């Protein structure tokens, strides 16, 4: 019997199947923990959602921001639904959409197994949240998701503000909780999220810190596994195990075994992402002696092309292929 946490799938069905084969997953005895963002961008979101739904008796799921977006889309009118990207549109137009979306809506924002010693979330925790407080606040939103008023929650869910404060109430409180659990990467010591900062540490606005390194944070009594922040690569620090390694961007899909004292990581290559087409070379200049103008050649691969991922949360291949933590048992396909 093994317990495996798996990073963001984001609609990468074929990649997910390869990883399950590599860890030799047996649904009769093993358990999977999915760190959220099951869907979107990978092109096979319907197949991926059906797969995870079929494994529901041997898996645990926490909701990510893309999962909540799918649920919000599913609660809209058909006319509004037709405006979404084709990957999500296939889900909301599928014959089994109600079965899939009703099941997804009943999943958690945080999962805790104190006997195992682990907590699973999608993105992050407020600096002053203990694991007990995090569970409490997750349940607040889960009650709304699981109740009859979930459509109203979806209509009021979007927005970057307010920052978390214990005195918040109503949908402001729910929105702040959701943003922490599903959107956070950086924050201030007082818990304000740096929503626009999505790159690697060192690129963020002054005064922001990775949520797991922010000064003044509380000590937590459980190890934490999470996804969401693909630009980090595989990162294990401060009791936090961040395992979104950018499968949807051509990185890797990562599984981390939770029920062992050893650090065991298994990875498979992510989705095939077409390489960007290089700009054509400019015509060679004729020598000035031939009477032609000496116009400067067009510049190729300028900053806008080289750094097109910067600040978007889309890691470059170099970021995705980060070195593994020291002393880790890492198994990775090279296919």
Topology of this structure?
Elements: E1 3-6, H1 13-22, E2 31-34, H2 45-54, E3 59-61, H3 65-74, H4 78-81, H5 86-92, H6 97-105, E4 111-113, E5 118-120, H7 131-146, H8 150-155, H9 170-183, E6 186-187, E7 209-210, E8 223-226, E9 235-237, E10 240-242, E11 252-257, E12 264-269, H10 303-306, H11 317-320, E13 329-332
Parallel strand pairs: 1-2, 2-3, 5-8, 8-10, 12-13
Antiparallel strand pairs: 1-11, 4-5, 6-7, 9-10, 11-12
Helix pairs in contact: 3-6, 7-9
Tell me what you see in this structure.
By secondary structure, the protein is an alpha/beta fold. It has one domain: Metallo-dependent phosphatases (Purple Acid Phosphatase, chain A, domain 2, 4-Layer Sandwich), CATH 3.60.21. Helices cover 28% and strands 14% of the residues. It is built from eleven helices and 13 strands. The strands form three sheets. Strands 3-2-1-11-12-13 form a six-stranded mixed beta sheet. It has a five-stranded mixed beta sheet with strand order 4-5-8-10-9, with no helix packed on it. The protein has a two-stranded antiparallel sheet with strand order 6-7. Helix 3 crosses helix 6 and helix 7 packs across helix 9. The longest helix has 16 residues. The radius of gyration is 22 Å and the shape is globular. The two termini are 27 Å apart. About 12% of the residues have low confidence. Keywords: Hydrolase. Its EC number is 3.6.1.41. It catalyses: P(1),P(4)-bis(5'-adenosyl) tetraphosphate + H2O = 2 ADP + 2 H(+).
């Amino acid at each position: 019997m093994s317990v495996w946490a798996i990073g963001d799938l984001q609609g990468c069905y074929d990649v997910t199947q390869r990883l399950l084969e590599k860890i030799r997953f047996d649904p009769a005895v093993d358990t999977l923990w999915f760190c959220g963002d099951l869907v979107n961008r990978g092109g096979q979101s319907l197949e991926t959602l059906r797969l995870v739904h079929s494994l529901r008796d041997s898996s645990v799921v926490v909701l990510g921001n893309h999962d909540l977006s799918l649920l919000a889309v599913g609660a809209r009118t058909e006319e509004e639904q037709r405006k979404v990207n084709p990957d999500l549109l296939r889900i909301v137009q599928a014959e089994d959409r109600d079965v899939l979306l009703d099941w997804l809506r009943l999943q958690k924002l945080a999962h805790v197994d104190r006997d195992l010693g682990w907590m699973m979330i999608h993105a992050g925790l407020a600096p002053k949240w203990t694991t007990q407080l995090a569970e409490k606040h997750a349940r607040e939103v889960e009650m709304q998701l699981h109740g009859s008023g979930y459509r109203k929650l979806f209509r009021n869910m979007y927005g970057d503000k307010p920052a978390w404060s214990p005195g918040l109430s109503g949908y402001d409180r729910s929105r702040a909780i959701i943003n922490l659990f599903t959107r956070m990467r950086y924050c201030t010591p007082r818990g304000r999220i740096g929503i626009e900062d999505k790159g690697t540490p060192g690129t963020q606005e002054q005064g922001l810190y990775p949520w797991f390194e922010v000064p003044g944070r509380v000590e937590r009594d459980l190890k934490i596994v999470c996804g969401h922040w693909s630009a980090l690569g595989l990162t294990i620090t401060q009791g936090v195990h961040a395992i979104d390694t950018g499968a949807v961007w051509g990185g890797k899909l990562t599984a981390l075994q939770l029920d062992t004292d050893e650090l065991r990581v298994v990875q498979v290559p992510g989705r095939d992402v077409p390489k960007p087409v290089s700009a054509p070379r400019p015509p060679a200049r004729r020598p000035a002696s031939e009477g032609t103008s000496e116009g400067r050649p067009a510049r190729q691969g300028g900053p806008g092309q080289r750094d097109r991922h910067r600040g978007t949360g889309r890691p470059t291949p170099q970021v995705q292929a980060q070195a593994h933590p020291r002393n880790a048992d890492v198994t990775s396909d090279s296919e």
